[in-house]
């Protein structure tokens, strides 16, 4: 308590963080919901017998699909390697 009285800026920052916590929670919730929906869609699309094995491995089940979408969406590394087989399988989603 004495520290907060000595540094009122810290108290202002703590109040700001607590006020933003609800918005941050709902933003993360919506991002997870979008990942879940697209994870289901891509798992269904890539479950066919004509799907390349490397693409099927990335979208094997819903959690794996969500993780693949998160990694490739956040890091954007090798996006072409992910989208090329997906485009060949389902043009609407690539």
UniProtKB/TrEMBL annotation:
Record membrane topology: Multi-pass membrane protein
Subcellular locations according to the entry: Membrane
Keyword NADP: no
Main location: membrane
Ion transport domain mapped to chain residues: 2-81
The UniProt record lists the keyword Transmembrane helix: yes
Keywords: Membrane, Transmembrane, Transmembrane helix
Residues passing through the membrane, by range: 20-42
Pfam families in UniProt: Ion_trans (PF00520)
GO molecular function: monoatomic ion channel activity
Gene Ontology cellular component terms for the protein in this record: membrane
InterPro entries attached to this UniProt entry: Ion_trans_dom
Recorded superkingdom: Eukaryota
Gene3D superfamilies: 1.10.287.70
Record-given protein name: Scn11a protein
Source organism (scientific name): Symbiodinium pilosum (Dinoflagellate)
């Amino acid at each position: 308590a004495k520290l907060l009285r000595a540094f009122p800026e810290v108290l202002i920052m703590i109040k700001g963080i607590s006020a933003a916590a609800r918005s941050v929670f709902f933003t993360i919730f919506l991002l997870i919901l979008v990942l879940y929906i697209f994870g289901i869609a891509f798992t269904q699309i890539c479950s066919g017998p004509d799907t390349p094995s490397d693409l099927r491995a990335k979208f094997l089940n819903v959690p794996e699909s969500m993780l693949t979408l998160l990694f490739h969406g956040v890091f954007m590394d090798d996006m072409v390697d992910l989208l090329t087989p997906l485009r060949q399988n389902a043009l609407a989603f690539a």
